[in-house]
From TrEMBL:
This is Carbohydrate ABC transporter substrate-binding protein, CUT1 family. Belongs to the bacterial solute-binding protein 1 family. One of its GO terms (cellular component) is ATP-binding cassette (ABC) transporter complex, substrate-binding subunit-containing. InterPro entries: SBP. It comes from Wenxinia marina DSM 24838. The keyword Lyase does not apply.
Length: 421
């Protein structure tokens, strides 16, 4: 009996010590945008479990939201003073949240992110506010057989198609009669897709959403000669029947290229794995150059810290832990996005040298450009989306872009320049 009591007592002491260590961990709350994505959630929960088990000071707990309602939830919580410690933030939205006082700069070892793709680092006012475990890239999908059948040169990063070559490719596809449309742009998705996917075409024409030197006006940037040339080109895609307009069935972007309805598709790397499974000879081409360079959008979801976080040292510790290559590679293998570092890419199935999606890493490294880094982007992006949808539906490009400039400039003035001098 005494032996049993001694064992029981020893077990109790061990249990109490373990429980005490667990109870000593301070809770660090986190919000995430990926509710409903089981694979993504499993990877994130695995990182959290690893972090919580790796040390005795902090215990991260996560609450996930649907992506469609996430940003509104953060803004409402900020106004109510109920933000968590760790925030998930879409890269182009971050400057607005930082300027609004929702976020604080990161305090992490910056040597840990020196090899990260530029689009994965969220900078505002010369400080690092957020860092992403992945980036995304857009490419022009087509088939090797389509290029051969239409007699088209295969463009490369070093020698992309010119604007004239791109339009000749669309005309050849249209004239062949083999496709419902030459090009799918995903016009049904009138959210962040429009500025992410279509601003690069404006940049390539020499225009911009806003003056990127001052960020205090869109005058001349969105309605100057270069932007007007873009607007007229954009209108021609729909007037001349190269691409379906805003009434496109959402299912078409999922299956239209796969089933052969489109010769070309402007789409992201997140659709690449599913497409490769169905199309043996799919190839991913770089953006065309309309005269001022060839670009794609950069910047995706990132981790940052709320300004009201009571334990920023714990939040920073988690972010430093989460940006290890093994976790960047896990997210890439799990959800198909681009790992943030070259070393993590080499650990992945798709993005390692010679891998089927390695070209997307190169596109992100060489072509990616951040959307306007300004708090005003949250308004400017919506104005741009509305303008492009209107032009696609037949509105006059010049009048539409002039009206967009007026709306953007009025918002900038109403917000005292958003902190730009």
């Amino acid at each position: 009996m005494k032996t049993i009591n001694r064992i029981t007592a020893g077990a109790f002491v061990a249990y109490a010590a373990t429980t005490g260590a667990a109870m000593a961990q301070t809770d660090v709350s986190m919000w995430y945008h990926g509710a409903g994505n089981e694979v993504e959630s499993n990877i994130l929960n695995g990182i959290i479990d690893d972090f919580n088990a790796s040390q005795g000071d902090w215990s991260v707990t996560v609450e996930s939201f649907p992506q469609q309602s996430y940003n509104d939830s953060v803004v409402a919580a900020a106004l109510a003073g109920n933000l968590p410690c760790i925030l998930d933030v879409d890269g182009p939205i971050m400057p607005n949240w930082a300027w609004s006082g929702y976020m604080q700069p990161l305090d992490i070892d910056e040597s840990l992110v020196e090899d990260f793709l530029p689009g994965t680092l969220g900078m505002w006012d010369d400080e690092l506010y957020s860092v992403g475990l992945w980036d995304a890239a857009v490419a022009l999908y087509t088939r090797e057989s389509t290029l051969e059948d239409l007699g088209l040169r295969r463009p490369t990063l070093e020698e992309p198609w010119t604007g004239e070559e791109f339009m000749a490719a669309l005309e050849a596809a249209k004239a062949s009669g083999d496709y419902d449309y030459a090009l799918d742009l995903g016009m049904n998705d009138q959210g962040e897709w429009y500025p992410y996917a279509f601003l690069p075409f404006l940049w390539s024409h020499g225009g911009s959403l806003v003056d990127r030197d001052s960020y205090t006006t869109a005058e001349g940037a969105l309605n100057g000669d270069a932007a007007l040339a873009f607007g007229e080109w954009w209108a021609s895609l729909f007037e001349e029947g190269y691409a379906p307009g805003t009434s496109e069935d959402p299912a078409d972007q999922q299956t239209g290229f796969i089933d052969g309805s489109f010769a070309f598709q402007w789409n992201g790397n997140w659709r690449a794995v599913a497409t490769m499974a169905e199309v043996d000879d799919v190839v991913f081409l770089p953006a065309p150059d309309f005269g001022a360079g060839n670009y794609i959008g950069g910047g995706s979801w990132q981790f940052g810290i709320s300004a009201s976080c009571e334990h920023p040292e714990g939040a920073n510790a988690f972010i430093e832990f989460a940006i290890q290559d093994e976790y960047l590679a896990a997210f890439s293998d799990g959800i198909g996005l681009i790992p943030s570092t070259p070393s993590a890419a080499q650990m992945t199935e798709n993005y390692a040298e010679g891998g089927p999606l390695a070209s997307f890493f190169d596109l992100s490294a060489d072509q990616a450009r951040l959307r306007p880094v300004t708090p005003g982007y949250v308004v400017q992006s919506k104005v741009f989306t509305s303008a492009l949808a209107d032009i696609a539906n037949g509105a006059d490009p010049a009048d539409t872009l002039d009206a967009a400039v007026d709306e953007i400039d009025s918002d900038i003035e109403a917000n005292q320049g958003y902190g730009h001098e």
